[in-house]
Amino acid sequence: MKTLSFVNNKGGVGKTTSAQNVGVALHRFAKSKVLFIDLDAQASLTRCFGYHNLHFFNADSGSFILNDKTFDEVVISTDVGDLLPASMGFLAAEERIRASAVFPFNLKIALDKIKHRYDFIIIDCPPSLSTSARIALVASDLYFVPLQAEYLSYEGLRNFLAFANQLSMICPHLQLGGVFATRYNPKLKRRLSIDLVKSTKKQLNEQFLDTYIRDNIAIPEAQASGKDIFLYDPESNGAIDYYKLTRELINKRFTKNLMEQLMRA
């Protein structure tokens, strides 16, 4: 079992989109059992699964982490895996999580009870260096950082990697799985974007992934409809790019058997 976090302290870079569609690809094509965890009070990942009325939930991922509710009381089963949703009440939960005696190991301790049920746990974090990001990284084996190819996103990446490196001092198992470009297409010949990607790749070497995610209208349309990109439009650039990204993640970070499963899909 591997726990993967998709993180960035800047919003709008494709973090939630990547968490959803990489997780779905692992389920659909590699036949993996996947648990999705939404740790953002904005509940973007929860909405991407089609749950727009957040008042519907009387429990969320915060309730599970704080042991106010059992896992089975909170988890939602979907066609592509299980989901621990977020809600607007998560902000209050964050305060209690931060004040607890076991912080920042809260999520790791909670997941130890149920992780045997899954092949992958996928965590979507808020766009900040917050309590949620801290507990997610401590609970993770690998973290992945989507990078929008623009100057402010590039500057934010350096801050985030410094933050994650500090946490790795208390969690030696935590590793950077990779950084990848989103809303990027070198064929458009936008010089600043191309230069930023080249510069980041030079600094990170093999930790900067080869696959990039192109801007694609099908992605926000899929999210608005509560569907993943593979179900909404399997022929779209978004579906093609996220399939390639998932193959690269597996090829570089996971087992040969899992890669063979994905290759056969």
TrEMBL record:
<protein>
    <submittedName>
        <fullName>Cobyric acid synthase CobQ</fullName>
    </submittedName>
</protein>
<dbReference type="Pfam" id="PF13614">
    <property type="entry name" value="AAA_31"/>
</dbReference>
<dbReference type="InterPro" id="IPR027417">
    <property type="entry name" value="P-loop_NTPase"/>
</dbReference>
<feature type="domain" description="AAA">
    <location>
        <begin position="1"/>
        <end position="167"/>
    </location>
</feature>
<dbReference type="InterPro" id="IPR050678">
    <property type="entry name" value="DNA_Partitioning_ATPase"/>
</dbReference>
<dbReference type="InterPro" id="IPR025669">
    <property type="entry name" value="AAA_dom"/>
</dbReference>
